[in-house]
Structure formats: structure tokens, C-alpha cells
Design brief:
This protein is α/β, with parallel strands linked by helices. 53% of the residues lie in helices and 12% in strands. The longest helix has 45 residues. It is elongated and about 75 Å long.
Length: 363
């Protein structure tokens, strides 16, 4: 199997191109190859090294890192080393067992690809997902004939892998169900009195000690348009947040940002305004994954942080241009969500959770 050629083919799906190798073409005799992905200001260098042929792979890594440093690559440049071997021996396992320093000038990541098992091994505290390259590593093991090199079928396989799985968004579906039930109870065009009786947020009621309204108003909507717009946003944003943070953190962040958004609404909004809707909590989730994406320099299921910021600006901007929109709740949710995502999650939850799942499955 010509793994180098297969790997280069798989990387094309991510617009990653080969820079150099130790020969004119990628063949079964190739010892190493370097690939480059320019992503914003921070480039990604991928080094595929066949340690069956490159005996002194430690010196290879050291030389590569020094070369990147001397060439003054921008701070945050990623150097991903993928060591190709028949079976991972103790020495390479020890060498690859590192803690990735995300604040280093050259961010080193070391993976092991085993030909005998088709397995990708990630030791220590390192990312096991890097802009889709982990998929290319696994795909390259299956591209052992001309039919398998069909790029359309490869792209379809990768797309299927990236789709949101129902079992990964159970909490999002439960939230949708609760909102839908309350929507049916309130009706398609509920009156203010009806909404207040079901738990809408109002400053006067809060002063009377009805603090449960900070929670209940998140499941009420003023009409069909309001409901469906929020549920579409909940699916797009919530499904990604749940996949990144896991169910427990996800529901906690949803409730906390929703409640904090309500405080902002009461503090800065018009007195005795009746407020309903899940948008404060949803904006909280948007702020959460935006902070996470900026902190970790990772896209969230195909959406990068620039797109997330644009979505946040559009959310606030549209609220300013429309009447009867509690824009203070939107701003409050975004602010507190971003604060939580940037300061407290540190981008570790998703990586650690994936590794635990793989260990449990014996992969």
C-alpha cells in the first residue's frame, strides 16, 4: 500500500497541499513528506514520517521545529508530526507522549499511524482533531486501489462523518420538545395575560418574589414566528454546543446564560416589560461556542470563529432594527456566554471526552 500517496489524496479534500518529500513522487519508498495548510495567520505544517525508514526520527523532529523557528513562522504555527509504523513500539509511544503547549511559538503535535491495524494513536495531552487531518489519516488506510481514490466518494464519506448524530444532541431535542409543548399550551397567538399566567418574565412579578420566572420564560414564545425562528437557531447553535461541551455542561450553560440574560433584560429594559423566549439562552450558547472557537483556534462543526462573530453581530443588529425584541437579553446572553466559553472551558472538554470514548471502546 502506498500510504503516502493515499494520504496526499485524502488531504486534498481539506485543501492541504504537498510541499516536499525525499523523492520526485510519493511512492512506497518515500521516507517522509511535508504538507501545508494556510489557515488565517497561523499555518499548519503536517509531517508524515515513516519511522521504519527514518531511524533517527527524534533528530528529524528537532530539525523540523528549528527550521520553522528560524524561518520566523508566525506565533501559533502548528507542526503536526504523524509517525507511520507497522506497530507502535515503546520508544515511539514514549516520544509521542507529550503535553501540547497551545501558547508556544511552534505548537507541536505527535500522532502515530499503525499500518497493521489502521489505527491512529494520540498519547498524552494532545488534540486528537486538527482541521480534519485525523479523518485523512484514517481514510488513507482504505485507499488501496484505484476505485477507492474516487474523490467524490471520499468527500461523501467525510461529509457523513461530520453530520450531527441524533444521539449526540439529545438535550437539544429535549429542549425543543419542552418548548414545543409550552408553545401548544400557550397557543399560536397568546395574549400577554396568558403568557404571564404560564410564567413570562416581568419586573413587577419578580419584585413580588416570583423568581421561577427567570427559568420558565425561556420556554414560552409570543407566537409561531417567534417559536420557529428560535427553534431553528437552537438546532444550529445548540447541536454544536452540545457536541463540544457534552450534555451536563451544555444544559448548565444553557440555563445559566438564559437566567443571566434575564437579569440584564430587567436591569436595562423598560420597566414592567413582559419578556418571553429562548433567545437569551440561545445567544448565550452562541457566545459560548464563539469564545471556545477563539480560545482554541478551532472551527465548530464547519463554522469558524469569524462566522460565529458575524452571527452574533447579526443577532444583535436585527434586534435593534425590530420592535418588540428584547435585545438586552440577546446582548446579555452573548456576553456571559462568551465569558464562560473563553475563560472557563479552555477547549479541553471536547478533546478529553473524545479520548475517553476511544479508550472505552478499545480503539
Amino acid at each position: 500500500m502506498n500510504y503516502f500517496a493515499n494520504f496526499a489524496c485524502a488531504l486534498k479534500q481539506y485543501n492541504i497541499v504537498r510541499q516536499l518529500c525525499d523523492g520526485d513522487e510519493l511512492s512506497v519508498n518515500t521516507r517522509f513528506a511535508t504538507f501545508l495548510k494556510s489557515r488565517g495567520a497561523c499555518p499548519y505544517f503536517i509531517f508524515l514520517v515513516d519511522i521504519r525508514k527514518v531511524v533517527n526520527y527524534r533528530a528529524f523532529v528537532e530539525t523540523a521545529v528549528k527550521t520553522l523557528t528560524l524561518n520566523r513562522q508566525s506565533k501559533g504555527t502548528v507542526a503536526l508530526f504523524i509517525f507511520l509504523t507497522d506497530k507502535a513500539e515503546e520508544d515511539i509511544l514514549e516520544f509521542s507522549n507529550i503535553v501540547t503547549d497551545m501558547d508556544a511559538d511552534i505548537i507541536q503535535i505527535r500522532w502515530i499511524a499503525e499500518i497493521s491495524t489502521g489505527k491512529l494513536t494520540v498519547k498524552g495531552e494532545q488534540p486528537n482533531e486538527v482541521i480534519g487531518i485525523e479523518q485523512a489519516v484514517k481514510q488513507a488506510f482504505t485507499l488501496d486501489n484505484e476505485e477507492a481514490l474516487n474523490l467524490n466518494s471520499l468527500q461523501k464519506s467525510i461529509t457523513e462523518k461530520e453530520r450531527v448524530n441524533i444521539k449526540d444532541i439529545r438535550i437539544t431535542l429535549i429542549l425543543f420538545a419542552l418548548n414545543f409543548i409550552m408553545f401548544l399550551i400557550a397557543g399560536f397567538s397568546p395574549t400577554v395575560e396568558k403568557l404571564l399566567s404560564l410564567g413570562a418574565l416581568c419586573g413587577e412579578n419578580i419584585k413580588n418574589g416570583e423568581y421561577y420566572r427567570f427559568f420558565t420564560h425561556m420556554f414560552l414564545h409570543s407566537g409561531a414566528t417567534h417559536f420557529f425562528a428560535n427553534m431553528i437557531s437552537l438546532y444550529i447553535i445548540g447541536s454544536r454546543a452540545e457536541k463540544v461541551f457534552g450534555r451536563v455542561k451544555y444544559i448548565l450553560f444553557y440555563i445559566v446564560t438564559g437566567v443571566l440574560a434575564s437579569f440584564v433584560s430587567l436591569a436595562f429594559g423598560t420597566e414592567n416589560t413582559v419578556s418571553v423566549g429562548a433567545s437569551g439562552a440561545i445567544c448565550g450558547l452562541l457566545g459560548l461556542i464563539t469564545g471556545y472557537s477563539i480560545k482554541t483556534k478551532r472551527s465548530i462543526a464547519g463554522i469558524d470563529f469569524i462566522t460565529l462573530i458575524i452571527m452574533a453581530v447579526v443577532s444583535v443588529g436585527s434586534g435593534m432594527l425590530q420592535e418588540n425584541i428584547d435585545n438586552f437579553a440577546h446582548v446579555g446572553g452573548l456576553f456571559f456566554g462568551f465569558l464562560l466559553g473563553f475563560l472557563f472551558t479552555k477547549g479541553e472538554g471536547y478533546i478529553d471526552r473524545d479520548r475517553e470514548i476511544k479508550q472505552q471502546n478499545g480503539n
